[in-house]
Amino acid sequence: MEDLLNTPTKKINLNNLVSLNLERHVLSALLKQPQIFPEIDTFLTDVDFYNKVHQTVFCVIRNSYLKNEKLDKVLLAQKIKNLNINFFEEVDIFDYIENLFFSNINEKAGIEACKELIKLRIRREMCGNADREKEFVIRNGDKSLEELFSGVDQIHNDQISFYYKSDINQPIDIFKNLEEDIEKLGNEPKEDGVVVHFNSFRELFGNFTSGSLSIFCARAKSGKSTMLNNLLFGACTNSNQKVKGLIIDTEMDTRMVQRRMLSAMTDINEYYIRTGKFRLNSEMTQKIREAWKYVKKYNGLIDHIYVGSADIDYVISLIRRWYRKNIPRNGDTLALIVFDYIKLTNELGDQKYKSYKDYQIVAQKIDKLKRLSIELECAIISAGQTNRMNEQRKSGYLRTDTGAAVGLSDQINALSDRVFLYNKLALDELAEAKSEYGINATHALIPLYLRIMGEKGPNKELVKFRIDKDKYTWKDNFIYYNVQNFKVTELGCLYDLEEKKKDKFDITEDNHDDSDIL
After folding, report:
1. Which of 41, 382, 390, 486 could cross-link with 405 by S-S, CB 3.0 to 4.6 Å?
2. What is the pLDDT of residues 328-373, one digit of tens each?
3. What's the rounded Cα separation, in Å, for the pair 497 and 444?
4. Contact at 8 Å (CB) between 196 and 233?
5. Contact 192/439 with Cβ under 8 angstroms?
6. DSSP per position, 144-193
7. What pLDDT, in 10s, does the model give residues 153-171?
């Protein structure tokens, strides 16, 4: 009996990855401390046991717990014997169960033993995973290096994702460490997440916090990439934080992005940079050369990868690899990742998505990006398309829009932490901004769905307008921006602009009254 119970039922060449004594320890804990079962049942399964006998004993014990049956040693042994499994022929199962009941293991030790058993199983699976990676490389010599790296990463990341999902799905006592965590935050107050350099944006919508996914939606060629890149550049060049950024680009190569960023820094039309004709103008040449000292200062802050139509699993593999290489575990450096942008790509030709509708594929992308932001504890900002409905808006539509304008999938609205419309202003909207507030606005950022808000967000969600002497109406708040040469300048939110206009009106009224009195 001892030989059978102490011999692994699978051949294994690795040391210290199997402990039959630990498996017996866990079984004893389940029998002697039945109150631990509800806790360990969320993570312990039969596959955590290496020995077939122990797997069977665990399954019978678990079944008895679920049926709320008393764990009597004789009845338990009889149930196992009734299974008529051939590897019990050399084992006196009654004596074996009797021995398990002799253990004096306590509740805490029992739970710890279960966790150690799972750790052994995971280590075995990691070794098996390494074998699968090795086999993949050997069998696919005809593939490119990029395909080989992607395939190996996929095998590795699938395992990480499995363990990660298992971990985040465990129930957590909401109030257990609440006092300690909040008091710790109060002892060292600071901005949360990656600080946004646009003041109105930060006040209304907050910063890019760890584990958040923010989506900026607009029609094609409306400047989504420009907005994302400006947000990233502003965050990475903030002297009060150490932030490193990554742009995953589905449309523009690195050279194009470089020139656009230089255009934003120098306020020179990108055409003159692209063609080299800036050199024909002394003022432009001076601006370009003055910019080099800043460019050197920003070296190493932002990386760019052009991925074209790569599928989302490959993209996530790239992000994980970049993150592990560039972001230290000590929390000294924050990461901000731009994924530009969400669209249907190579998933359409993948067999595993064969039965999926377009909107379901997009929903999977959003879900994977959100999970990745939580896994890596970083913020991800991205862009999406709006449908034609957003092009057909009438004057004033800016203030009354809904999520119906967001294209591809409603899951963009449901799964993201923040969803915005980033509208290029129509002619009447340009005129309204100029006549009402004296600003040269070109774009408006309209919040649609917000799980995260800034310090003043709740107080400025609605703007009050006077229609007549005693009549008022309300409009949703939004932010005006000016975009020139790929540089985005914030001009203020509707709420603040209206307040300034009211103050100016009140002052004018007072002066008028004084002159009448005189």
Report:
1. 390
2. 877 889 999 999 888 877 666 666 666 677 778 788 889 889 999 9
3. 13
4. no
5. no
6. -HHHHHHHHHHHHHHHHHHHHHHHHTS---TTTTHHHHHHHHHHS----S
7. 777 666 665 555 555 456 6
Q: How far apart are the first and last CA of the chain?
A: 113
Q: Check residue 400 and give its pLDDT.
A: 43
At 441, give phi and psi (nearest 5°): -80, 145
What Cα–Cα distance (Å) separates residue 76 from each residue in 64, 67, 93? Answer: 8, 13, 9
d(CA 231, CA 251): 18
Q: Is the pTM of this model over 0.85?
A: no
DSSP letter assigned to residue 325: H
Contacts of 32 (CB under 8 A, 6+ apart): 101, 103, 104, 105, 110
Q: Provide mean pLDDT across the span 487-509.
A: 80
- Rounded-to-integer distance, Cα 217 and Cα 341, Å: 10
Rounded distance, CA 386 to CA 374, Å? 26
Give the pair of three-digit tokens for residue 499.
């307040």
Rounded Cα distance between 119 and 160, Å, is 14
Condensed to tens digits (0 to 9), the pLDDT of residues 417-475 reads 999 999 999 898 999 899 989 999 999 999 998 998 999 888 888 888 777 777 888 88
Predicted confidence (pLDDT) per residue in 203-224, tens digit: 999 999 999 999 999 888 888 9
Distance CA 336, CA 381 (A): 8
CB under 8 Å to 354, separation ≥6 — which residues?
none
Backbone φ, ψ for residue 130 (5° rounding): -60, -35
Distance of alpha carbon 403 from alpha carbon 446, whole angstroms: 11
CA-to-CA distance for 382 and 214, rounded, in angstroms? 6
Question: In the sheet that 213-218 helps form, which strands lie side by side, from edge to edge?
Answer: 302-306, 243-249, 334-340, 379-385, 213-218, 418-424, 443-450, 479-484, 487-493
CA distance 407 to 385: 5
Sequence-distant (≥ 6) Cβ neighbours of residue 141 within 8 angstroms: none
Tally DSSP H helices, then E strands, for the chain: 19, 11
Q: State the pairing for strand pair 443-450/479-484.
A: antiparallel
Residue 446 contacts by C-beta under 8 Å, 6 or more apart in sequence? 398, 399, 401, 420, 421, 422, 423, 476, 478
Cis peptide before 353 (omega within 30 of 0): no
* Separation CA 186–CA 201 (nearest Å): 24
DSSP string for 86-145:
GGGTTS-HHHHHHHHTT----HHHHHHHHHHHHHHHHHHHHHHHHHHHHHHHHHTTTS-H
